[in-house]
C-alpha cells in the first residue's frame, strides 16, 4: 500500500495487536500499574495541555501547537488514531522549529520496553501506546506537551496526568454511546473527567446547552478557573480577518488556514488555552500559527496523487475524517459555504465503521449532495458494508450506491459528469480510517 512505512515499530505493534484485545477497556488501574513499573514517566513531563471533546480535538491541538511553535517553543504532540503510520501519534518537539514524527528505531525501542514492563499482564494496546507516549515525552526534552484524549476522558488512559497546565473541552455531541452514555449530558460528564482541581479549563463552543451546563458545573465544583466560548472569549470574521476577543483584549488576526467557519471557534479555544498555560504568546505568534497550521485529513485538499488523477479533470477534492452527526453538520455547512463562493455539484464518497450513526452523519447533506458513493474501509475490521451504508444514506434522503473502492467511485463520478461544464466538488470521508486509506493510496501520507 503506497505511503505506508514498513517499519520495525509497526512490526512490534502488530505483535501486541495479536496478544491483547483491540478497542478500549475504560479503566485507569492497568495503565497506573504499568507506569509505576516504568518509573512513572507521566510525572516527568513538561507542562501539559490536555484536550478532550467529541469534535474539534485535532484542530485545537493543531492550532495550539502551531501558535506555541511560532513563539519559538518546542512542543510534543500526542494524537490518535493515526491516518497512515503509527508514528503520526507521536510528534516530538524541536527547539525553534516544527516538531517531527518519532523516528522508527526510537518508537520500536519504546514499544518493546513498555511491552516488557507490562510482563504479559492483561491490558489493551491503546494503554500500551499511551504509556509509550509518556516514555517518549519524558525522555525527550520539550517546553510543552499537548496530549489528546483517546476516548471519553474520566477513564481514558491519558487521564493519569495529575496536574496539566490547562484542560480543554471541545464541542460535545453523541458519539461512542456504548462507552460513554446515550445522552449528551452523560457524555459531557465523562469528558469533564479530565478536569483537575484548581487547574484552568477552557470550554470550547458547545452546541448543546446540557453539555455546557455539565462542564461549567464540574469546573465550578472543582474550583477550576474556566473560560467559556461565547462568554469569556470569542472570535468572528470581519472584513476578511479573524477578530479574537477575551478578557485580556482584542487581536486582529488572519483567518485560519484550516477551512470552515467552525475553525474560528477552534482557533479561539486554542488561543485562550495557550494563554492559560502561563507562557507569553505574542500576537505575532498567533498570526503565524493561524497562517501556517496544518492538520492532515481534516478538510484537506487533494490536488495531486494517484487517486486525484483518477477523478474528473479540475475536480475539487477534499478528504475529511469527521464521522459523527456533529461533524457531519459542520462539514456540510463548510460545503454549503464553498457552494456559495463557487457553485459545483457535490458528490460524497463515504465509508464508516459500525460504531457510528450514519443516518445522522448524512442528514445535513440533504439538498446539498448530488449523490453518495459508499465504499469499504480497509483499515478497520469494524467497517460497514457499503451496501448497508448506501441504505443508511437513502434513509437520510440521499441518492446512494455502493462501490468496491474509492478509485471505482471516482471513475464513476468522472463518467457521469463528463458532459458537465462545471467540474465536481468531491468530499471523501466519514471515517479517519478511510482517510488514512485514501492518503496512503494517493501517495500523500502525513509528514
TrEMBL record:
Pfam annotation, one family: Mur_ligase_M
Key word Ligase present: yes
Domain of life: Bacteria
InterPro entries attached to this UniProt entry: Folylpolyglutamate_synth (IPR001645), Folylpolyglutamate_synth_CS (IPR018109), Mur-like_cat_sf (IPR036565), Mur_ligase_C_dom_sf (IPR036615), Mur_ligase_cen (IPR013221)
Keywords: ATP-binding, Ligase, Magnesium, Metal-binding, Nucleotide-binding
Mur ligase central domain span: 51-273
Presence of the UniProt keyword Electron transport in the record: no
Protein family per UniProt: Belongs to the folylpolyglutamate synthase family.
Protein name as catalogued: Bifunctional folylpolyglutamate synthase/dihydrofolate synthase
Organism: Shinella curvata
Lineage summary: Bacteria, Pseudomonadati, Pseudomonadota, Alphaproteobacteria, Hyphomicrobiales
Amino acid at each position: 500500500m503506497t505511503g505506508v512505512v514498513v517499519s520495525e515499530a509497526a512490526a512490534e505493534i502488530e505483535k501486541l495487536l495479536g496478544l491483547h484485545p483491540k478497542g478500549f477497556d475504560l479503566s485507569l488501574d492497568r495503565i497506573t500499574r504499568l507506569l509505576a513499573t516504568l518509573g512513572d514517566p507521566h510525572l516527568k513531563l513538561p507542562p501539559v495541555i490536555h484536550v478532550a471533546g467529541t469534535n474539534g480535538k485535532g484542530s485545537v491541538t493543531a492550532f495550539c501547537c502551531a501558535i506555541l511553535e511560532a513563539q519559538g517553543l518546542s512542543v510534543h504532540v500526542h494524537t490518535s488514531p493515526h491516518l497512515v503510520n503509527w508514528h503520526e501519534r507521536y510528534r516530538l518537539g524541536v527547539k525553534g522549529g516544527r516538531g517531527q514524527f518519532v523516528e522508527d528505531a526510537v518508537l520500536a525501542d519504546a514499544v518493546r520496553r513498555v511491552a516488557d514492563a507490562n510482563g504479559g499482564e492483561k491490558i489493551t494496546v491503546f494503554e500500551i501506546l499511551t504509556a509509550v507516549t509518556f516514555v517518549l515525552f519524558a525522555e525527550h526534552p520539550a517546553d510543552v506537551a499537548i496530549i489528546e484524549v483517546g476516548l471519553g476522558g474520566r477513564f481514558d488512559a491519558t487521564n493519569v496526568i495529575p496536574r496539566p497546565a490547562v484542560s480543554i473541552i471541545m464541542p460535545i455531541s453523541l458519539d461512542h454511546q456504548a462507552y460513554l452514555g446515550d445522552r449528551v449530558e452523560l457524555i459531557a460528564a465523562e469528558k469533564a473527567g479530565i478536569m483537575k482541581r484548581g487547574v484552568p479549563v477552557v470550554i470550547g463552543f458547545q452546541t448543546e446547552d446540557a453539555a455546557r451546563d455539565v462542564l461549567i458545573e464540574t469546573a465550578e465544583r472543582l474550583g477550576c478557573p474556566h473560560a467559556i466560548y461565547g462568554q469569556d472569549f470569542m472570535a468572528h470574521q470581519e472584513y476578511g480577518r479573524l477578530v479574537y476577543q477575551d478578557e485580556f483584549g482584542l487581536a486582529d488576526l488572519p483567518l485560519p488556514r484550516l477551512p470552515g467557519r467552525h475553525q474560528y471557534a477552534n482557533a479561539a479555544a486554542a488561543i485562550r488555552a495557550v494563554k492559560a498555560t502561563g507562557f507569553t504568546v505574542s500576537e505575532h505568534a498567533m498570526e503565524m500559527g493561524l497562517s501556517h497550521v496544518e492538520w492532515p485529513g481534516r478538510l484537506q485538499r487533494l490536488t495531486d496523487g494517484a487517486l486525484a488523477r483518477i477523478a474528473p479533470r479540475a475536480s475539487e477534492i477534499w478528504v475529511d475524517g469527521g464521522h459523527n452527526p456533529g461533524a457531519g453538520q459542520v462539514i456540510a455547512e463548510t460545503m454549503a459555504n464553498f457552494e456559495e463562493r463557487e457553485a459545483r455539484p457535490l458528490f460524497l464518497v463515504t465509508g464508516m465503521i459500525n460504531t457510528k450513526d450514519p443516518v445522522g452523519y448524512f442528514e445535513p447533506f440533504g439538498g446539498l449532495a448530488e449523490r453518495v458513493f459508499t465504499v469499504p474501509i480497509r483499515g478497520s475490521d469494524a467497517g460497514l458494508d457499503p451496501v448497508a451504508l448506501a441504505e443508511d444514506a437513502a434513509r437520510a434522503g440521499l441518492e446512494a450506491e455502493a462501490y468496491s473502492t474509492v478509485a471505482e467511485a471516482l471513475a464513476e463520478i468522472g463518467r457521469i459528469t463528463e458532459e458537465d461544464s462545471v467540474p465536481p466538488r468531491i468530499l471523501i470521508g466519514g471515517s479517519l480510517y478511510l482517510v488514512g486509506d485514501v492518503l496512503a493510496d494517493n501517495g500523500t501520507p502525513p509528514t
